[in-house]
């Protein structure tokens, strides 16, 4: 059964958030100029890793000035040890260590982009645990404590979140890599039919890992712009704040 109509601003049918992980060069060179041209805003999740982080964050000041969200993706991008067979990873970390890493990223982002005092979080590699086996625990409560919302991933392809029932501290994002323009548009239309919130996850645009072709990305953006009376395209932060306010 479709969920009941949700009160998106302006009577629109769905919220769409274009999210971008890892602060890649192709996002700066390809995604942002095209989104700016169309007036679409997205959320860009950065890792201000140790060493020259101030220089690396500089280009993102203009991105923030254009109305995009600069989100927290931790400093060191910790992932599961199972991913690459490393010695160090989320399984060998404590919640306190992870919190320190996240707060260090927060301090650095605020220093370079002081105008953005609140932001959302993005789970590196979609994982949300520390420890393993009997000591494994979720770090979602940590994100709920420090952020308006957190964006993760999903195992359910085709999925968009139901705003009235979702956990804002772990919003399931839909990976966009290798999808064609018509497939991404199809996901937006499916979300509209249900009144849901689709969070698409991008890494590379045309170049780099987990990429989407430039032409496909533009086709999606053109569709969202052409149907802006039906789709509310905005940052994770702005949509999450709306959802939170509706619940009160
Ligand atoms: Zn990442």
Description of the molecule:
This protein has 248 residues and is α/β, with parallel strands linked by helices. The chain is 38% helix and 16% strand. It contains 9 helices and 10 strands. The strands form 2 sheets. Strands 1, 2, 3, 4, 7, 8, 9 and 10 form an 8-stranded parallel sheet that branches. Strands 5-6 form a two-stranded antiparallel ribbon. Strand 5 and strand 6 (137-138) form a beta hairpin. The protein is globular, with a radius of gyration of 17 Å. The model has no long low-confidence stretch (mean pLDDT 96). The structure holds zinc ion. Zinc ion binds at residues 21-22, 73, 77, 124.
Keywords:
two-stranded antiparallel sheet; 248 residues; binds zinc ion; TIM Barrel; 8-stranded parallel sheet
CATH class: Alpha Beta
Outline: globular
Beta-strand fraction estimate? 15-25%
Supply the number of helical segments. 9
| CATH homology-level superfamily | Glycoside hydrolase/deacetylase
Report the mean per-residue pLDDT as an integer: 96
Bound molecules: zinc ion
Largest sheet: 8 strands, parallel
Number of strands: 10
In N-to-C order, the SSE pattern is: EHEHHEHHEEEHEEHEHEH
Poorly predicted tracts of residues? none
Name given to the CATH architecture: Alpha-Beta Barrel
